[in-house]
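Following the same procedure, sequence and fold were stored together, as reproduced here.

>
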Amino acid sequence: MPRESKAELDAAFERLYRDHLRDVYSYAYYRVGNHHDAEDLTEQAFLQAYRHFERARRESNGRPLRPWLILIAHNLASNYHRDRARRPQSALDRADPIAAPHATEQIVEGREELKHVMSSLENLPDDRREALIMRFALGMDNREIARALGRTDGATKVLIHRAIRQLEEEMKKDE
């Protein structure tokens, strides 16, 4: 396979960026809980992806690169949390207003439910929380999640099933 020109690589990376910016940002937001840090993490993820893009395309054998991007964001988010644990800060309010126009009562109820889900997610082990974020926030299928987490498809299916059960139990505790 002939090497691609810089212009071809840049055009391919631009498509990758456009296609997956929302996914990487959403993943980062669910991991770090605020827009500012999620934007920073997203930027770092794409900068890192750009540096390794040519090799990733060669090694992907035509498979989608979304799991690879999410893995980069995952590693950066893990570093973010490790750094934060070393420098504890006050907790931030994790819930943002719902974008669609609703009555005030519905917005308040939606915020409370989101806060409840987010706080319950925090009680899950990292791998279960990651799998649920990838599945439900990003809409990734089990195969993509398996690639991003370095697991088999079967192990990923079990992981998601157990994560859902544990999240349901965590949410019942607080009721």
